[in-house]
Predict the 3D structure of the following.
Amino acid sequence: MNCIEIENVSKKYGKVLALNNISFKIQCGDKYALLGPNGAGKSTTLKILAGLLKPDQGKVSILVYPPDSIEARKLIGYLPEDASPYRVLSVRENLEYIGALRGVEDLHERVEFLLDIFELREYEKAKVSSLSRGNRQKLALALALIHHPKIIIFDEPLNYLDIPMQEKVINILNSLNLTALISTHIMSVALRLTKRVIMISRGRLLWQGSIEELKKMGEEHEQIESIVARIMNNDFKTN
Amino acid sequence: MISKLIKFVILTRFSKPYLAFLGGVALLYTIPAVIAPHTNNDIGFLTFYKYYVTGTLTFLFIMSVLTGGLAVTESDRQYLFTLPLKKRDLVLALYVMQFIGFGISILFFYGWFLPYINIPAYLLLIDTILLSLFLTSLTILATFMDLKSRVIFSLILSLLNLLALLNIPISPVIAFIGSQFYDSLFLIFISLITITISISKLDKIEFELTRTIIRASSSIYSESKSFVGLKPIQSVYKLNYNTLFFQGRINLGGSTRYSTARIRMSRMIIFPLIFSLIYLIVAILNNKYMLSIQIAINIVLAYIIFGLSFATLSNERLWLSITSLPSYIYLKHLFISKMLSILTLISPFIIANFILYLIGNTSALISLIIEIAIFPSMSIIYTYLYSHASPIQVIEDITPNIQFNLRQLFIVLLSYSVLGIVIGAFYYIPFLILIIILINGFSLYIVLNKNISMNLVNRLVERGFV
């Protein structure tokens, strides 16, 4: 069963074509890295899946629901790049407010759990505006996971985190039985968090498959980054 | 070098067409005052102007002190400040830019009146420049104060302003009311003091405003809000009705930094309570020109609502709210909660007008109707219109790299509609009824229409809101 399905989706910002008739499917339980050069349309794809942007054409489904439906919202945990929580609220207030908006039943326990697991306990009363970028990212991750999502759509989730916290977040995400689409520029992050890859460039799907298949496309001892770069560069040369 | 730096700083804040447009408007306002000055004997108009200028200047003073500081952008911090430039030159360039910003604000608030207020052109020019320098200096001095001192200082300035209503000359506002040189003496005196002190402190200003703000105010909220046990919609109201969010910018033409703050309704309502009480006393003591006073007060209130409406979107986080609730449900309740909070905020004036009506002032009834039936709904329309301009989401405690352009100016100019709406509503009852129907109808349409909410979110996200 497909948890994420994008079919012939196009999106323009003014005259700029961000997504060009792109299609892909992700089966429930699969974890995909979304790779692509700058301006490939990765963030736009994620925003459309999160129900924040409307495609100009094409069909998008989360399980069988449109992304802006209540059902899809319950399923999805979305984290944008450079996520900024409500800066006029404290850490705890952010968690409680969004938990209440999402109707989380075990909200008190959930907030306590997330404060501990993301090491935010000492900042729980702190204004978000006073937090370091790393602590803000930890809070953003906690907010994206507060409602026990079944599908996560994350844009550069490890940005700004120190190495111990990066390891912790990788372990947390890997321990959850989720469907994931994670946009990243860093192959090591993709390798640690996902098993499969969707590669896009200039708003079109370039390649989709497993990381093992991707590795097989390279020469012996060729670094995976090099293989990815070659595929992307070939796309630029042939178009 | 310094002239190049000043030019660079100005052009990174204001586009050339924007400056050219405002320059043209300034000439349009001032040339008639210089070429064909005429005496205005319309007491009604002059009384209206007196209250209008007192109210708007008080608002400008309060905002300048509360949100004080030089407008330093992200690019300034990352690039300009790393260049081998003298700090004094940098601060001076920012000071000049801020002076121009306040000049624009003053032009925006008073430009229309300049030819009609019986003040000689040369004096008006001196007063306007001094006022702009005074406001710039206030923002510099405010940088060195903690929040408590800022509140006390702004209250003292407000009281000084209000003395102008009693024709007491120890008020900076009297310069814009009286027509003689001695009326400007207090403004000259207070400006010289603040300019001297602020310039002497220029070297001590910290550019790292974020850190300054954090140090100046506590990084911990003393009172925490809890949302545990609340239903989704209850949470929206608990946050957005009980709390007023502020952002420093737009109406001040780039002269304040970007910053957000939250103030509890129960604290914020002290300000309208004090001002409505003064209004009530003045009205009871001398109600000869009540209509003019009421028009002025309502225009000032409408400007404040205009400013508050902008903050609604600037503090929003769509990646959290709209992915939690459908956009039409969230925005509907967000807008209604803000509308109710504005209604509560102006309720002291509603009560004051009700009392005045009971003691026989008929125009107080119109004032009351405007405040109940027009202003709250107007906040929804302003928020919606703002989403069509170049809305700014406040992410950091600094001014984003934004250049003021004509598109934004167009939305700010929309607030001029307030003048027409309020004056028209006071003089023509059919117009009042028509405006009530139109504004409430349009705001209801915005709130209830699913497509409008979805398109609004789409437009905001396309423009970079997250």
